[in-house]
Amino acid sequence: MLHTHFIDGQWVTGEGHDLTSIDPAKNQVIWEGKSASPSQIDLAVKAARAAAPAWGMLTVEERLSIIKVYGEKLGEAKAHLAKVMAKETGKPEWETATEVGAMMGKIAISEKAYFERTGNVENPMPVGKAFIRHKAHGVVAVFGPYNFPGHLPNGHIVPALIAGNTVVFKPSDLTPMVAEEMVKLWEQAGLPAGVLNLVQGEVETGKALASHNGIDGLFFTGSSRTGKILHEQFAGHPGKILALEMGGNNPLIVKDVADIDGAVHDIVQSAFITSGQRCTCARRLFLPANAQGDATLARLLEVTKNIKIDDYDAEDQPFMGAMISANAAASMVKAQQDLEALGGKVLLRLEQPDTQKGFATPGIIDVTDMLSELPDEEHFGPLLKVIRYTDFDSAIEEANNTSFGLSAGLLADSEEDYRYFFARIRAGIVNWNRPITGASSAAPFGGIGESGNHRASAFYAADYCAFPVASVELEKVTLPGKLSPGLTL
Length: 489
Ligand SMILES: NC(=O)c1ccc[n+]([C@@H]2O[C@H](COP(=O)([O-])OP(=O)(O)OC[C@H]3O[C@@H](n4cnc5c(N)ncnc54)[C@H](O)[C@@H]3O)[C@@H](O)[C@H]2O)c1
Ligand SMILES: O=CCC[C@H](NC(=O)CCC(=O)O)C(=O)O
Known about the structure:
Elements: E1 3-7, E2 10-13, E3 18-23, E4 28-34, H1 38-57, H2 60-76, H3 78-89, H4 93-118, E5 121-124, E6 129-136, E7 139-143, H5 151-163, E8 166-170, H6 176-188, E9 196-198, H7 203-210, E10 217-221, H8 224-234, E11 241-245, E12 250-254, H9 260-272, E13 282-288, H10 291-305, H11 326-341, E14 345-348, E15 363-366, E16 383-389, H12 392-399, E17 407-411, H13 415-424, E18 429-432, E19 444-445, E20 457-458, H14 461-465, E21 466-473
The structure holds nicotinamide-adenine-dinucleotide (NAD) and ligand L2THXQ4J.
The ligand O=CCC[C@H](NC(=O)CCC(=O)O)C(=O)O binds near residues 148, 278, 438 and 457.
């Protein structure tokens, strides 16, 4: 029996079709199950609804006491969970260990955010007092992506539960095993039945959950394509809260820098970490069309060629592991071919050495001469597009020439240049002389345009997990000393 769904505190077998999860580095099946049927999704939503009043009536301290036990369980399971994540995503174990670390850190950060952003405020009034308090929405669905199968859904689930919501979690169908391991830790922490439910499945599971009448909100991290479908689906439901964290076509501009190796380091960290599978990864690199730009590009090509790529569990750990699947790697080869067909010049070819596995070597392509043809797409893998520019204004203008707006960066030694850039660039994350990946959970995280819907996550997730309630209160019903004109009592 494959008990892969967690509904109302019980592990149950799916009634839908077969699901498998494949280790993309070794091309081995590592998990098998069945998707949730529509009636199981219905049961999960109903369980979350039934659990909501009691969970919401606990004090936040009572809820936090259970959530902190989950944090301890994460600590105890850290090595195991990091290995499961590496096996299922192909990411090197050093990197998945940092992902589990981020999941643990999320608890204290979300507690702080809850009190700072949605805590209670009391103000004196001429008569009585005014209060601002926050209440949970009720039942929320959480959708996770594959690239951070623990950290990103955890970043919705923890603040949602702190605020008093109950949750139905639908992970990526490419990472069901990580989701299962994570939910087991919540179970071990003693979370009451129905407070967190797990339903596994592909697109149709997502559609059934997103369109279920019983949810009060949906917190989504994934592609802009899916996010837009959800946005359309939520149209006409103003009472439901929808938080969308989506992709990007992120620009990184290099201006005048003395330390070329420092710049190359930040470019590589921005473009190729996680094999380019971070929403914040640099997709478009702007280099000056001068000798310094030539030197930076030459060094970038040299360093990128030498990036170590290997299995997630290699003793000598690589910088890059496999992508999530053989298909994902093949789609990057195809994206490169398409850009080449439009006039892009490959400077370092992205290759998939084994079509049965998810490995893709990092690629760099010069697209300067085909800018008018350049599709405004997120290529979610290790393919960096280079644009050579002659003046800073045109580079910034082209950097903003995207419907997305997640992250952006400037590598330049002049603070004045940064201020100029900051004032003009349009993105939710804007960095200076630092990689544009690796955002902090202690800051808001989100983008504009097709990158999100202005409901930033991370520290600001507290905002979409609760709604504010304004009250004026007086202990006893009392006749006011001064009555409104025309009123006698
Ligand atoms: N901004 C961020 O915080 C952030 C973080 C990580 C990843 N991402 C983005 O996520 C993408 C990669 O993740 P992914 O491929 O797993 O995303 P995805 O959009 O394919 O899937 C995300 C989730 O939505 C579900 N889903 C897919 N189609 C659906 C539909 N029609 N209706 C309802 N649910 C549906 C999936 O099963 C999964 O659970 C990239 O675009 C990346 O930029 C964004
Ligand atoms: O792939 C998208 C996430 C990338 C990651 N961002 C965060 O971890 C945001 C912080 C948080 O959600 O707590 C990154 O910037 O590398």
